[in-house]
Design a protein that fits this description.
Endonuclease, Chain A, 50% helix, two-stranded antiparallel ribbon, Arc Repressor Mutant, subunit A, elongated, seven-stranded mixed sheet
């Protein structure tokens, strides 16, 4: 039954065919009883078997329907499926050719700022930041300052990335004054992140694979605590911001130098 259904019969058709091959002939009433098919449906179903070449009608006989030899019947089913597959391929190809011009025309009229995404909700911002970290293929560069979207010691996605990719992060020195944050930074460094420190950073920034950037633009009234961020997928902008990152990175302090300057232990 399962095989018959997989090769193209309905459940009622499969039941009727199995019932037919066990007898030398059957009436519709017999088939309804033997195959447990509702009487109102049996005529439609047996006519469908005849149309598919799995049964034949013997006019003038009381037991008017007989099964076609299973080997012949299965071969016809497969041939029918092959014909339908060829028709499907032809229809799919024709549909693709008909729709392609409209698709191309639609792409010519895309919004010129489709590559710019503005995020204001904190939860949405957290999810988007995790998504960006998870899509890194080669390199992740960042300017990290408070308030953090995800605090450094809780950034599980970032830790996984630091262990397998090139990650360079510039932090503000004030972060190290918090023992929990300091331990989090140390954990990132142990996993492979290259960390540097400066007194102040101009903005929060992430550059992913020189193709996507994410940065915060503090509200001039709300101030630094505003978490509105912009994500832009544009390699030219990413390349320019990487130049800015490298300029800050070159003059920044290592973790040991920063802790020494602040008179702090590396952990704890």
């Amino acid at each position: 039954m399962d095989r018959l259904i997989r090769i193209g019969l309905t459940q009622y058709e499969a039941r009727l065919y199995v019932a037919l091959i066990r007898r030398d002939g059957s009436t519709p009433a017999d088939l309804a009883r033997l195959a447990r098919v509702p009487r109102p449906r049996v005529y439609d179903v047996v006519d469908s078997l005849v149309a598919k070449g799995l049964a034949v009608h013997r006019p003038g006989h009381a037991a008017g329907y007989v099964a076609v030899d299973p080997k012949q019947a299965m071969a016809q089913l497969v041939e029918g499926q092959a014909r339908r597959l060829e028709m499907l391929r032809a229809d799919a190809q024709a549909a693709a050719e008909e729709l392609s011009p409209a698709f191309a025309e639609g792409n010519r009229h895309r919004d010129p700022l489709d590559y710019v995404e503005v995020i204001r909700d904190r939860d949405a911002l957290t999810r988007r930041f995790d998504q960006l970290q998870a899509t890194v293929e080669r390199e992740f560069l960042a300017f990290s300052r408070e308030p953090a979207v995800v605090s450094v010691e809780q950034n599980v996605v970032g830790m996984e990335m630091a262990a397998t990719h090139i990650v360079r992060n510039v932090y503000e020195l004030s972060l190290l004054r918090d023992p929990t944050r300091r331990a989090g930074v140390r954990r990132f460094v142990e996993l492979g992140e290259q960390a540097r420190f400066v007194e102040t950073l101009p903005l929060k920034l992430a550059v992913v694979d020189e193709r996507v950037v994410m940065f915060a633009l503090p509200d001039p009234i709300a101030g630094r605590d505003d978490l509105t961020s912009v994500v832009i997928e544009h390699p030219d902008l990413a390349a320019a911001l990487k130049i800015a990152f490298e300029a800050v990175w070159t003059s920044a302090l290592t973790l040991d130098q920063a802790c020494a300057q602040l008179g702090l232990p590396l952990v704890g």
